């Protein structure tokens, strides 16, 4: 016997959820989703796992970028002994191309990191780095193309493949203390740039010689890289490969005035930054200082560089990353002009200390500065990678232009004026970026 419509309606009403219960259930769902979202954006900000990743990045920076920053030893050795048939400008291309690939590889590695290819990049880049070092040890004197391929191209690409992913993985563990953690990690390259010159100068100019010395350094770096790979581990889930593309990211980021002016500023800064670093040892020798002292100029510069990568980053929270970067870059521009007056040991030591500190501040503050422009953490790798790609061209052309201005007559004022003007012009561009960001955020502490 079928029930009447009235009784069926009454039954539906009896079984229908009460309005209060529906509201409570909805609130519970919303609360659960909110708590899940919070969990997704919560960062450890410390602990063994987080700091072990920082240590791993420190080791990889020591072995790869630290070796690149010690190129001044190679530059001096090539100019005076190994590639004497070539000009300073031609030899400078080895270091500048190496620098280009270090920073410009981020065009691909930034997005690859975001989409989950961290281990592929780190293992592949590390293996290429060690292989190219051993290949460099097999080159012959006056064979420019051999050195260029092994060191300029090979080591540059290898260091670049590991650079952006190594720094970006720290963002998986730190947010509030990110600038400090990145500053500590990047200090590895500064320590490496201080240790490698001591070792390389002693090997190249001692009984071991160039070829065996390069192989010895390759063996040491291999051990450090293995330790680094065991310590580093990504934490956050990868970005979906369907979400955006490199071209889409490029179109989006280049619509932002702050991002564009940041790229312009870093481009100019890189064009002027590395000439004093690559040529300080050679300038000390040309000034008549003893080789035993000149060999340690880079050690002093890069040793203080370590401190410069950490101390300014501690001040990021209270003072702002752009404020600190502008102050440090202005100081570097002034110091480059002061290098014209440096001719004796005390002046060289003071210059090495100051330039080392402020150039270290640049390296330590750069990545947090770019990361501060990101709308979400998922785009940090892409922003860093794209920025490094464009700005790497500044590093590519800057040192060879300065080397050509130096000429075989070693006219030092011409490249130093060029480098100083580039540095101050880049700083002016960052001042405009600071104005835009400050206006957007409503505060001057940016």
UniProtKB/TrEMBL annotation:
One of its GO terms (cellular component) is membrane. Keywords: Membrane, Transmembrane, Transmembrane helix. It is found in: Membrane. Its main location: membrane. Residues 50-437 form the Major facilitator superfamily (MFS) profile domain. PROSITE patterns: MFS. Coiled coil: none annotated. GO terms for molecular function: transmembrane transporter activity. It is a multi-pass membrane protein. The keyword Isomerase does not apply. The chain crosses the membrane at residues 50-70, 90-110, 117-138, 144-167, 179-200, 212-232, 258-281, 293-312, 319-342, 348-374, 386-406, 412-437. It comes from the Eukaryota. The keyword Transmembrane helix applies. Belongs to the major facilitator superfamily. Monocarboxylate porter (TC 2.A.1.13) family. PANTHER family: MFS-TYPE TRANSPORTER DBAD-RELATED, MONOCARBOXYLATE TRANSPORTER. This is Major facilitator superfamily (MFS) profile domain-containing protein.
């Amino acid at each position: 016997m079928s029930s009447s419509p009235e009784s069926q309606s009454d039954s539906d009403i009896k079984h229908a959820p009460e309005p209060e219960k529906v509201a409570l259930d909805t609130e519970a769902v919303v609360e659960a989703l909110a708590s899940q979202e919070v969990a997704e954006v919560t960062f450890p900000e410390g602990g063994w796992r987080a700091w072990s990743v920082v240590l791993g990045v420190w080791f990889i920076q020591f072995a790869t970028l630290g070796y690149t920053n010690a190129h001044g030893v190679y530059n001096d050795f090539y100019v005076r002994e190994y590639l004497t048939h070539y000009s300073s400008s031609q030899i400078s291309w080895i270091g500048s191309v190496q620098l280009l690939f270090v920073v410009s590889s981020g065009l691909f590695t930034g997005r690859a990191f975001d989409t989950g290819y961290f281990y592929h990049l780190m293992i592949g880049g590390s293996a290429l780095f060690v292989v190219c070092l051993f290949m460099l040890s097999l080159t012959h004197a006056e064979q420019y193309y051999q050195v260029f391929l092994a060191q300029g191209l090979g080591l540059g690409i290898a260091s670049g493949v590991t650079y952006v992913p190594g720094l970006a993985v720290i963002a998986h563990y730190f947010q509030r203390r990110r600038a400090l953690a990145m500053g500590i990690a990047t200090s590895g390259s500064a320590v490496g740039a201080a240790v490698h010159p001591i070792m390389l100068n002693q090997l190249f100019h001692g009984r071991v010689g160039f070829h065996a010395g390069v192989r010895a350094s390759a063996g040491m770096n291999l051990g450090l890289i293995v330790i680094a790979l065991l310590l580093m581990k990504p934490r956050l889930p990868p970005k979906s490969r369907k979400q955006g593309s490199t071209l889409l990211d490029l179109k989006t980021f280049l619509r932002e005035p702050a991002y564009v002016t940041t790229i312009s500023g870093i481009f100019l800064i890189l064009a002027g930054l590395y000439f004093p670093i690559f040529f300080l040892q050679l300038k000390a020798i040309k000034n008549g200082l003893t080789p035993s002292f000149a060999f340690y100029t880079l050690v002093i510069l890069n040793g203080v560089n370590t401190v410069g990568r950490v101390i300014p980053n501690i001040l990021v929270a209270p003072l702002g990353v752009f404020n600190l970067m502008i102050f440090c870059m202005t100081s570097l521009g002034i110091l480059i002009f002061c290098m014209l007056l440096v001719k004796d040991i005390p002046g060289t030591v003071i210059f090495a200390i100051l330039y080392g500190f402020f150039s270290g501040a640049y390296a330590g503050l750069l990545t947090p500065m770019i990361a501060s422009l990101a709308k979400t953490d998922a785009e940090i790798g892409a922003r860093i990678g794209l920025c490094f790609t464009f700005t790497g061209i500044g590093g590519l052309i800057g040192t060879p232009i300065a080397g050509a201005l130096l000429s075989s007559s070693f006219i030092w004022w011409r490249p130093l004026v060029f480098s100083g003007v580039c540095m101050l012009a880049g700083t002016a561009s960052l001042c405009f970026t600071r104005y835009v960001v400050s206006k957007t955020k409503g505060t001057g502490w940016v």
